[in-house]
Write a structure and sequence with these properties.
- By secondary structure, the protein is of the alpha/beta class.
- The chain is about 45% helix and about 20% strand.
Length: about 400
């Protein structure tokens, strides 16, 4: 078993225990429940830590409250400022209002409106600035310095890290047999706190970080690689271009591996959690399950703890993800069929689909904007089927009836 030197790290087990005492009775001790169904799918024993059920729907309440409580009597009336893509914003705003501390939150352009509005609802002033978290952070530092406010960093702060580490105290107390922890990484505050606790209490635990493939910042920092960072990810909560200095040090010493997950894998995990566990998570919250589903050999037979880190997601985005997942599973399909433009053809197609057990959701004729002959028309349908095998059967029946159908 590897020996870990924890003595020189900027955060200790005692710091995390002190944070636990600070937040006790205010921050929810969330459930850590076994999911037998997901475990069967993933071929491992799987427990879920439901941080998406915190009051602000994120683990960020923990670190925010621990940091705010440490403000001096002189700092409190001058207020605090933070940069955040949403979850840290709400954690700071909610707890600052509880403590009577003025709060200003700088959020990047493109932050989901549900997170912006929830932050305002908690009483904070919201400033939209910057195209990403780093640009928002630069504005927050200059604006905060100009107005005498204290910066509450989302991850690169020992008190924030200690607060997030209380997640691991609860998980290992609830499920001592855990041998693997899977944790999403943005700036690294959550996994750093968890790693400090796990290495102190159970050094043999495997600690696996997960990042979105579009934003592999910590992966690059630890591996020495230079993978590109770009685009819009469903997991905007962990879309961080510049990981923390403190968190990088801790992760390099204590974390076993960092896995990258694609956007389709994140979407699948999010849809799976909704359909099986009936729990809503955001993209970052789904990243851990995405990694387990995508790498079954890494976790087979193990006792795995997943942190569902947050649940702040726009309902329109949830609808889009669920619909896209139905399409991937072959349960919702758009068909294009070339038919002769004469009476009875639509009825014939409808009858065939009904006999095959497919449900027609939408119908559209396209006569004008088509390269088909004038006596032909393009029939566009959205149909619902049970699964991919059922869709294949429907397509075979259409072909047997001489209808030229294709999935689009």
């Amino acid at each position: 078993m590897t020996a870990y030197d924890l003595s020189k790290l900027p955060v200790t087990l005692d710091d995390v225990r002190a944070a636990a005492a600070t937040i006790q009775g205010v921050v929810l001790e969330t459930a850590c429940n076994q999911s037998r169904t997901l475990g069967e799918i993933c071929k491992c024993n799987l427990w879920l830590k439901f941080e998406n059920l915190q009051f602000t729907s994120s683990f960020k309440d923990r670190g925010a409250l621990n940091r705010l409580n440490a403000l001096t009597a002189e700092q409190r009336p001058r207020g605090v400022i933070a940069m955040s893509a949403g979850n840290h914003a709400q954690g700071v705003a909610y707890n600052a209002r509880r403590l009577g501390i003025p709060a200003t939150i700088v959020m990047p352009v493109g932050t989901p409106m549900v997170k912006v509005e929830n932050t305002r609802r908690h009483g904070a002033e919201v400033i939209i600035s910057g195209t990403n978290l780093e640009e928002a952070g630069a504005f927050a530092r200059s604006h905060g310095a100009a107005h005498g406010m204290t910066l509450i960093h989302p991850y690169d702060d020992p008190l924030i890290i200690a607060g997030q580490g209380t997640v691991a105290l609860e998980m290992l107390a609830a499920v001592p047999e855990l041998d693997t922890l899977v944790v999403p990484i943005g700036g690294g505050g959550l996994i750093s706190g968890i790693a400090v606790v796990a290495r102190a209490l159970k050094p043999s635990v495997r600690i696996i970080g997960v990042q979105a493939e579009l934003y592999p910042s910590m992966y690059n920092a630890i591996s020495g690689k230079d993978l590109p960072m770009r685009g819009d990810t469903l997991a905007e909560g962990i879309a961080v271009k510049s990981p923390g200095r403190i968190t990088t040090e801790i992760i390099r010493h204590l974390v076993d591996d960092i896995l990258l997950v694609t956007e389709p894998q994140i979407e699948q995990a999010l849809a799976t959690l909704i359909s099986i566990e009936t729990t809503g998570v955001d993209g970052a919250g789904a990243a851990g399950l995405a990694a387990v589903l995508a790498n079954p050999g890494e976790f087979a037979g193990r006792h795995v703890g997943l942190v569902l880190s947050g649940g702040n997601i726009d309902t329109r985005l949830i609808a889009s993800v669920l619909t896209r997942e139905l399409a991937r599973e072959g349960r919702l399909t758009q068909l294009t069929i070339d038919i002769v433009d004469r009476p009875g053809q639509l009825a014939a197609v409808s009858s065939l689909l009904g006999d095959a057990g497919a449900n027609i959701i939408e119908v559209s004729h396209q006569r004008t904007f088509s390269v088909l002959p004038a006596k032909a028309t393009l029939l566009e349908l959205v149909i619902e089927t049970r699964d991919q095998a059922h869709l294949n059967d429907v397509m075979a029946k259409l072909a047997a009836a001489n209808f030229k159908a294709r999935c689009t």
